[in-house]
Design brief:
Layout: E1 4-8, H1 9-15, H2 17-25, H3 27-44, E2 48-53, E3 65-68, E4 71-75, H4 82-93, E5 97-100, H5 104-112, E6 116-118, H6 120-136, H7 162-172
Parallel strand pairs: 1-2, 1-5, 2-4, 5-6
Antiparallel strand pairs: 3-4
Length: 174
């Protein structure tokens, strides 16, 4: 199943130390740095990515809906916040969506719509790890010992709920 990553753009920028520094210099510089970071991530993991910015009453370089470097960029229109747009997109995408935001209201609304949620610092960490592993390699070693007997019991009592297992699988794809 394909994942559609919906990102609260300014939230992620301001939660990241590197992007926040660029954002303080110039708002457009911060947005471009985020799009560059996501474009590099998209080359490693080809998920559909949409970044949502507050754009009410603001002219933008990209327009209200644009694609740059394979990333869909959306700006909220007048009278609507980026949070409202993210909530609406999460309701539309349901279980296919992974919403990245540290805003509790957005996370709760997306989760109630059936989407998987992740806070901004965790997503930034996943992106950094993916780029590190792409450069370094997976680093997985094959255990040649084969099966090792164990007395550890496994079974339904240790099993996550079906919903939690699906969320874990979606996050694992990052």
């Amino acid at each position: 199943m394909a994942i559609h990553i919906i990102i609260d753009g300014y939230n992620l920028i301001r939660q990241s130390s590197d992007l926040a520094r660029l954002d303080r210099q110039d708002l457009q510089l911060g947005r471009e740095a985020l799009v560059d970071l996501l474009a590099a991530y998209k080359k490693i993991k080809p998920h559909k990515i949409t970044v949502v910015f507050d754009g009410a009453g603001q002219p933008s370089l990209y327009g209200s809906r644009e694609r740059a470097k394979g990333i869909t960029i959306r700006y909220s229109q007048g009278g609507e916040s980026a949070d409202d747009l993210i909530r609406r997109m999460a309701r539309k995408e349901k279980t296919k969506a992974l919403v990245v935001s540290s805003d509790r209201e957005v996370m709760a609304a997306a989760e109630s719509a059936g989407a998987t949620v992740m806070d901004s610092p965790s997503f930034e960490e996943k992106v950094a790890m993916a780029s590190y592993l792409a450069i370094k390699g997976d680093g997985e070693t094959v255990d040649s010992r084969g099966w090792v007997p164990t007395t550890r019991k496994k079974g339904p009592s240790r099993r996550l709920s079906k919903r939690k297992r699906k969320e874990k699988a979606r996050i694992g794809k990052l």
